[in-house]
Amino acid sequence: MVSIAIGIIGGNGAVYAFNKLPASWLCDYGKEPSEAAKSLGTQRIKSYPWKYVFTASFIVVAIYMGINDWQYAIAGIIGIWLLLEIAIADKKYMIIPDQLVMFLAITGFGFIPFQGGFMDLVEGVILGGSVMLAVALVGKFITKKDVAGIGDVKLCAAVGLATGPYGIGFTIICGAFICGIVAAILLLMKKIKKDDEIALGPYLCGAAIIYIVILHNYFN
User: Fold this and answer.
1) Torsion angle, alpha carbons of 172, 131, 111, 117, to 10
2) Binning pLDDT at 50, 70 and 90, where does residue 44 land?
3) Looking at CB atoms within 10 Å, which of 11, 48, 97, 139 has the fewest?
4) What is the C-alpha separation between 130 and 137, in angstroms, rounded?
5) CA distances from 163 to 54, 75, 93, 202 (A)
6) Which residues of 79-91 are buried (b: 16+ CB within 10 A; e: fewer)?
7) What is the value of pTM for the model shown?
8) Is the Cβ–Cβ distance between 158 and 152 less than 8 Å?
């Protein structure tokens, strides 16, 4: 019953909270939010079908994680919820809100008892931030366009804090790999052009969720 309640709150709350986020969170500093982001009369994400999709997903995840380790599930569910909000923001508005990343980083401290030690989290932060920064700089040099933004760097540092070096390693490799495959498919289908930007954040968030829910037990 607790897992079902968590699923209902998490799923419905994900839609409600995103639709109520301050518009200023959904644009770069110094820029005006888009009219779609500012409009309080328009849902940024529709209740149907997403409330039902998210609710069902959270119920399944909450039951699975609760059976394995209910204490770990507390930090895990909160982290997953924030990752979902970040993924939606980046997909819809090409922005990773600093405020949500900050909350994710704070949640990361709740994972300390389930890591090999505090230094695992420190290593995760350093690895996540430095590797993604290197990817952004090298990608910019080679392609002459942004392949990753500073938001992705901050996101990976926060994910590293929560998951440690193994988790952030998996997140970056898996997220970038899947993003590349999706981009190639969309190019072949002529859904996007060669110079179009694709948000990397949703794939990083998806990979991080997979690690938190499924793979964490195999690396700790």
Assistant:
1) 130
2) confident
3) 48
4) 11
5) 23, 11, 26, 17
6) bbbbbbbbbbbbe
7) 0.92
8) no
Give the separation between CA 45 and CA 68, rounded to whole angstroms. Answer: 32
* pLDDT tens digits, one per residue of 12-25: 999 999 999 998 89
pLDDT band at 86; cut points 50, 70, 90: very high
Say how far apart CA 114 and CA 220 lie, in whole Å.
Answer: 7
* Tens digits of residue pLDDT in 156-167: 999 999 999 999
- What backbone phi and psi angles, to 5 degrees, belong to 97? -60, 125
